[in-house]
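Notes on consecutive records. When two proteins share a document, each keeps its own sequence and its own token line. Never mix them. Below: protein one.
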Amino acid sequence: MKEDFLHYLWKFQKFQVRELHTVAREKIEIITPGQHNHLSGPDFFDARLRIGGQLWAGNVEIHIRSSHWYAHGHEKDRAYDNVVLHVVWEDDAPVFRGDNTRIPALELKTVTPDNLQQNYRKLLKNSCSFINCEKSMARVDPFLRDAYLERLFFERMERKSVTVLQDLKRSGNDWEAVFFRQLMRNFGLKINGESFRSVADSIDFKVVRKVQHEVLLMEALLFGQAGLLGEDETPDTYMKVLRKEYLYLQRKFGLSSAGVVPPYFHRLRPANFPTVRLSQLANLYCQRKTLFTLVMETDRVADFYSVLESSASPYWDDHYTFGKISGKHRKVVSRNFMDLLIVNTVLPVKFCYMRYLGREADERLLELARSLNPEKNSITAGYTGIGIKPGDVADSQALLQLYHAYCSENRCVECTIGHQLLKT
């Protein structure tokens, strides 16, 4: 038994509410159960209850056993002085406030339906290899499940919007700068995301605006800040030119690479080498001077492909690293890579920007997500294996949110699918 199950019982009143009594046999009438508090302090604020004919307004605290009140030290915490009802699974000890007045207790184990208890234990104690409800999730009403996944898609957008809004505050409401930082991180993918983001953080976007008229300067800026131009003499002519330009930019703009995380080459396919990706990004910003504005004005996937289309500079046609010649071919940004950029950069930034402007754009964002193929990873594969196959990016993003925020945290009683399984 866990407290989250008791929170679920109280919040949704999944017990016999008629003829409800405290352990002291005082009649309880629940007018409103209160607001669920997920932070420190009592579990439910501002409840309205009638106990023994007396109307009470105050807080509700929930424990597995009454004695946990003292185990948690609540008798010494004034934040709990306004608790008007102690909701417990088992009442094993009387509980008193700091002024020695006894707190009424409601024991749930005597008023909770047996089938609900059994379903809860079955759900949480089920031997599973992926998630708790892996044997029963596919049996949930598809209409209910799909509606919940749509809600989870926007919940994930909300979660991703946290870093976007932090960047907005940091940049003084400069949305172009916000988009640059977000795009830099996602150009680095999982391995070099932190490194590329640290490079973006080390550059005032005003500098990007001043150098993006010329690819050579833009590459010099990004490669130099990433520490890829070395400090010693090199026989590679292109690297020499870039290093010369970078030293000039460094003096002119007072650039510092303190705090920059060095990029990795190890365990990467050559197409994802930081040299190639940074060159592609440099060319993209030189081709699209107002990239953020273009992205915000675009809604169709085909148009996004046109906006995000880019390739590395000619030097990289036969190089993956400085000074080492390889087979010759253009290093273009692939459609699959652009899909990742749309999912991880465009969607969350667009989500935040529309709300910043006070515009409702949920349907447009959902339509865009529905037009992209679902992501393939171990989590979406896990859901596919239990009969929940994502049909598009909206589905795969929703499943990622479901897994990380609910399934892996055993928050089944806070999940709509978990609610449904508890009832059946």
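Protein two starts on the next line and is unrelated to protein one.
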Amino acid sequence: MKFKLLAAIFVFTLFFSCTTTKIESKFSPVFVTNSSKYELLPPTAMSGSIEELQRMEAFFGKNHIEADIYVIANEDQLSMILMSEFGTTVASLFYDDENLDFESTLFPKKFKPEYIVADFQFCLYDEEILKPRLEEIGLELKVSSEAGKDGTFTETRILSQKYKIISKVTKKFEKNSETGADELKSIKYENFLRGYSYELTGVSE
């Protein structure tokens, strides 16, 4: 993997910083559109929990990268560790509503990690909590689901403003054969306004 390419892709989108950056207890609003400012929700708004290694595939224009990212997300925190192809940590993020700590050696110093957290919240936070927050800033969230074969199903989230689609989230679930619980297998996030997308897929042990 060429990390110069990785930096180019996420300068305007998701991840991290050319010099080490650290932000604590001071969150900036996220401009979902040029006029709509979103304030981060607390981790307690998270639906379910995640703690596993994910394979990330991302696109920005014609650029494409792949990397491993370890994610811990529950009602207490959001933690992400981005790893190089050699297994070394190249970026990390920790958010627990009181602190937002962000460190990296790759991406622009002025990049705001709030944008990473916001994208994650749009994907996974509770629909009933997200909707009113988004409506306050002139955005609409529509959530639908479709059953598949063998107990699988897909959830789709569409974020729009005045009938113009801003972003789309596609989450795929499968039934755990032992517990019968629905398990999240992959998340695909497409931001049509900013022109980027990424997909996270759980890595089987």
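For the record: The longest helix spans residues 114-124.
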